[in-house]
Amino acid sequence: MHSLMRSAFALFLSIFSRSLPRSLLWRTFLLVALVMMLSVIAWFSIFNLYDREPRARQIAQTLASAANLTRAALLAARPDARVVLLREMSDREGIHVYPSDNDEIIAPLPTDGMSRRVEEIAREQLGPRTRVTLERNGERGLFVSFRIEDDDEEEYWAALPRERLERVLPLSWIGWGAAAFLLALAGAWLIVFRITQPLKAMEIAARQVGAGDTPLPLLEVGPSEIATVARAFNQMNADLARLDQDRALILAGISHDLRTPLTRLRMGIEFTDDAVLRDGMVADVEEMDKTIAQFLDFARTDSGEATQDIVLPELLTEIAAQYARRKLLVNYDYDASEFSSGMPTIHGRPQAIRRAITNLIDNAFRYAPPTSLADAPTLALAVLGRQIQIDISDHGPGIPTSEIDHVKRPFTRLDSARSNVTGAGLGLAIVDRIARTHGGRLELLPRVGGGLIARIYLPALRPN
Question: Does CATH number 3.30.565.10 belong to domain 305-459?
Answer without folding.
Answer: yes
